[in-house]
Structure formats: structure tokens, C-alpha cells
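Check the record.
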Amino acid sequence: MSKFKIVWLLFLLIISFPSHAQQLAEVKGRITNTSNEPIPGATILLSSTKKGAKADRNGFFKISGISFGNHQVTISAVGYQTLNRPITCNKGVIDLFEIQMIPVQKIMAEVEVIGRSTANEVTRQPYNVSAIDAKKLYNTTLDIGQALNRVSGVRLRESGGVGSNISFSINGFSGNQVKLFLDGIPMDNFGSSFQLNNIPINFAERVEVYKGVVPVWLGGDALGGAVNIVTKNDPGKYLDVSYSYGSFNTHKTAVNAGYISNNGLTMTLSAFQNYSDNNYWVNVRTADFETGKYTKGRRRRFHDTYRNETLVYNIGVSNKNYADQLLFGITLGENKKEIQTGNHMDDVYGGREALGNIIQPNVKYVKKDLFVKGLDVNIFGRYNFGKERSLDTVNRRFIWSGESEPKDKNNPNAPGGENELRDYRFNNNNGNFIANLSYAINEKNHLMVNHLLTTFDRKGKDKYYPDLEINKLPRKTIKNSTALGYRTNIADQWDVNIFVKNYNQKGKYFEEVKKNESYKNVETTVNKLGYGFAASYFVNPPLQLKASYEKASRLPENNELFGDAQDLSANPTLKPEDSHNINIGLSYTKKWNENNHIIIDANYTYRNATDFIRLYISPLNSSNKRESKYLNLRSVLNNGVDINVKYFYKNRFSIGGNLTYQNIINNTKVEPGQVVESSVYKDRMPNIPYLYGNADAAYYLHHFGGKHNTLTIGYNLQYIHAFFLDFPSLGTPAQRFIIPEQLSHDVNIVYAMASGKYNVALECNNLTDATRYDNFEMQKPSRSFNVKFRYFIRKK
């Protein structure tokens, strides 16, 4: 062959390569069910090639490098009918948009409240995690906190009714030891306008509860677990409007709307309001002004009105080459709360108030396969400009009858407050930046990196004491949390995660040199290292075993260090707390036939914590009030178990329940500064329920009054065993104060018409009007009745 022919042949080969490269396409889309919910893990194969993919947690998939021409796509998923669909690749990107799969049977999709419908993939993680499918509760008047209260191992403790102060607990660890997240972003210092017990359940798509070990991708420095509220990330086009009215003049309204156009323009809106007089009945002691004697009786709360309005709006683009999601948003809200009680029901107020607002812009960026295949990035940032106000300007003392008298009868018009004269306005300026990166080395091995930056700077001024030195002192923290994780699927049955976490906190505080007179500034730096693993093994498809361990650390939060400017005092000398956490669990799902289905989850929990941070309530002071602040307790040991059982019959009936036992022991043998054994060594920790549970049942009447109508009759029971308010060894049996056993019942009827387009719900909470207690004997609402109307429409 001549040189000329060889050169010509090489030239033809060279120009043919780009020509061939241009004939490759990319196929993408999203796999959903008939309710437009994602099907994570669905398998997509091109039968004419060896290429394929699996849908991610939001149902999206992408297959690259496909030659031009006709192909057959096969889509399969457990519990759904296999789909076969022909496609023609004749351009660079073939977008199949949403592909809906039809369930083989619909028992679980219709009746499950907490379990394995859309939350299936979450609960199959190696972590000890439960998931609430919020969509199943949209017709109830529950807020997110009340829904969480039905999960095994979980307690949401409230100091009253709508909008009251809360403390959230998972397996005995409570308050800031449990981290709260919104779409994976910490909810630290969101302000009083946005908390678990005023966010309606319709705001969320699901709620994930991690008990103990927390995944790397959530970040932060949780000690005892985490709650992640997942909103609608891919909303489609829908409108969801609801209104409810109930006892104690309680009004709740929620509007949720979403829009995504064919060109990717994305908008979401969530707006909600709550209002209640909270004038429910309580059993209390009422003092006599003249004699000072107390008489027990039943009284209405009279100064406890609460209202809040909140709006969350996001706008941006989805499914672009440069971003799977790029959203800019704003959260706006305000609230006003009258304060009826202090840290005990004997502390009665008639004029104190707390007000607040939230002004929080944010940005979110999500991209899969950024620069290289397998590199996924999720970045989020926000800053809260909201303000809070604590108001105490009524110089009187009140009793439960609503009567009052001047605190100083000789000078009744003197300025003052019920606790102390105050009009303190402050900004908890708080920022969060979080970055999540994950890289798929191959199908079975993944690397994950998470970094969280949190800033806090409280600035405030009291109208009545503008020159007060303590209000000019710094209250600042900067916290950095970095986590590195590695995940491997050793075999189809195994899933193993190992991780290491580093925590750093820098703070500017102050110390009191002379009581109420002089102070000095203090700067501190704290570093902590944590590590652990989580693993699961499927013995067979129905039976999953789990084990996890974490050496966890938690840095003190801002309200613990600086107080809340109301009833919680500051303690800037708090030390970080550490804990060795172990979880062992199993999950079992059994179907005898198409009619019978049972789910069993059981878990053992071990916690060994040092420098445990605990809320302390002091005895009555000279002003006849109790001070509350957080203190370090040197060592706490917890062994606990919880079990959850759920049974379904066809799509007509479900019944289930859960029970939690936690033995939380004071493990500090010798108190600091002492030489003898502590009198409360090995005592059970006070004011923490150690045995509690829930039970529920539901009966479904399908096609009731119409082909696409369903009538649901539901029942829920809540049980809390009696527990001590203080350490048992501090008094004789006659002196020990016991918070009594509590048993309450809720019933509801829900009528869904036109496949859920129109919905009406009737509820009775606390049917037997039981006296229910929570934080330090703070009584919760008496019997109440509610009605809710909901309209829902979605355009696919």
C-alpha cells in the first residue's frame, strides 16, 4: 500500500472518530408511583446494551453513552409491575420525564402511617431509623411534633398548649442533645416562629428519626439522635389548602403549593398560621392573698394566647445541565405568646409576653455528576435576621382565679414586672452553611464529606436599662463540624458505613467577677473528635439485622450558654458532653398472603455519657420563683429497649403499637469537690419518663358514598408510666414527688372524597379528659374537639 493511501486511510479513521462520538445520547428521567412519589432503587436497563442505572432517593436516573437508534427500556422495582418502553435516540439528551409504575398491590400505600411506603428506603439504612410518611397524616390536625410523639423511643414534652415551649427526647437524650434538621440543614436558632409544635404536618413529605448514631450527610454534633424534616423537593404542580377549628378557640390554616414547568422553572410555597386562646382547664393550687393558704381546684388558663404566621417561598430552576436544582428562598414569620406560667404551675403570670419574628433568606444548589461521573454535590446557606422580644412590665402578682394585687401595696403604681421589669429586644443573628459531597468510586464503594459552619451573635438592649453592662457583653459562637465517611456494599446482603467527625467551637463569653456589678470577657476554643460505624445484614429479604456505634460529642448550644431571655438563665461555663452510643436492632416484615402483613422493629440502646448537660430547676428563691439553667452532670448511663409492631389486613384494617423502656442512671459516684459517695449515685434520672408507649388502630370503608370515596375511623392511645420529679434518694417515700401514670385516648373520623380531592376530618383529643403532665408537672390541654377541611389538587 502506498504512503499516500496509508495517509488517506489514517485521515478517514481520524475524522470518523468525532463523527462516531457525536452519535452518542444520554437518557434521563424520573421513576414515580401513581401518587407521584419517587421510587428509590428502581432499576432501568437498555435491553439492546449492557448499560443501566438505578433511581436515586428522589427517583431520578441518568444513562450516558448510548448509541443513536432504537432501544428498549426495561424498568423494574420491588412491588411494582415491570415496564417495557421503546425509545429512539436521535439527539444528545433524551428526557423521558416522569415514568409512573403501577403497584402490584396497594395495601401498604393505602393504610400505612409509619413504615415502609415512600419511607421504605430510609428505614432500610443500617442506622437505627424510623420514618413517618407525613402524607398519610395530611387530613389530621397534627403538627410535626405531635406526629413524632407516636414513634417508639420518642417523646415530645410540652409545657402547655399550642406554641408552648418544648423539649424533644430520643431514648432519654433530650433538648439540644437531639439535633433537628430541615432537608438536611440544622434548625438551630430558627426562632420562636418556627418550631416543631407549630409546623403543620402538611409542610413535610416525610420525617426521619435517627436514634443514636447520625449519618455523615446530616452533619452537626448530635449526641443522642436527630430528626430530619423532608419537604417536597420535586413538587410537580399542586395546591393543598386546609383549615381547622377546635376547642379553646384554636384556628389553624395551611397552604402548600408547588409548580415546575417544562423548562425547569420551579416554585414552592408553604404558608401556615396558628392561633389559640389556650384557655383549657387545669388542676392547680390557688393561693389566697390574705392568708397565703393554697386550695386545690380546677381553673381555666387565662393569659396564654398564642399566634404565629409563617411563609416559606423558593424559586429557581430544576433539571438543568448546570444544576439539578438551584433555588433561592425566603422564610418570613412572626409570633406573639402570652406567658401564663414560669418553670412550675405555681408560678402564675398575667402580663408577661414574648414576641419574635424570622427573616431568613437562603440558597440551595444540588448537582449530580458534577465535572465527573459519580461526584454529587449539595450546598446550602442561610442567615436569620429575626428578632425576639421579652416583655415583663406589670408590677403585680396573679393567682389562678385571674385576680391580682400590687407587688408593693405601699407603692402600687411603681414601675416593675412580675419577675423583673424588662423590655428586652435582641437579635439571635444566626448563619448556617453546609456542603455535602459524595463520590461513587464504583457501584459498591462511596466516599462522603460533610462540612457545617454555624455562626451566632446575640445583640440586645433593654428599654428600661439601656446602659446595663451585662447587655453589652459579647455572646458569640462559631462552630465548624467536618465529617468524612466511607460506605461499602460488601455483598448484596451487607451495608457498612464507617466515619470520623471533628468538631470545633470558638466562643466569646463573659464571666461575672462581682455579682451583678462587674464582668470580664472570655474567649474559648474547644476541639472534639468523634468516630463510629453502622452496619446492616439481610439474613433473608424479610429480616434485617442492624448494629451501630459512635463515640459522639456535643458542644453546648447558644440557649444553654446564654439563656433565652425569659425563664432560662445563662451558664457560659458549660463543658461539651461526650457519649459512647451503641444500637442493636432488627426489622422483620412478613406477608402470609395478599391479605395479611406484619412489621416488627426492635432495638436495644446503650448510652454512656460524661459531662451530661441537664436542665436544672432551683428551689424557690427570695422572690418566690424558680430559676432554670443547664448544668453538667458528670456521668449518665442508659440501657433501653423499644419495640414497634404493625399489622395490616387487606386494605381495610390496621392495628399497631410501640413500647419504650429506658433505664437512665446517674453514674457519678463522687460529686466534684466531695470525697464521699454521692447520695444519688445509681439513682434513676429525675423528670424523665422511663416507660411509655402508643397504640393505634384504623378501619377503612372504601367506596363509602361514592366510588372514589373512603371513610376512615381511627384511634390512638398514649401511655406514660409514673416517674419521679426529683432524685428518689433525696426524700423519704412520703416526700418523693411522683408524676402519676397517664393514659389518654384520641379518636378521629376522616372522609376523603373524589380520590382525596375533598377531605373532612373530625377529631377528639384526650377523650376521657385525663390530666396530662410533661415538663416539671406542666399540664397539657384538657379534652378538645377539632374539625378540619382540606382541598388537594395535583396536575401531573
In short: Helices lie at 3-21, 107-111, 120-123, 144-148, 558-562. The chain is about 5% helix and 55% strand.
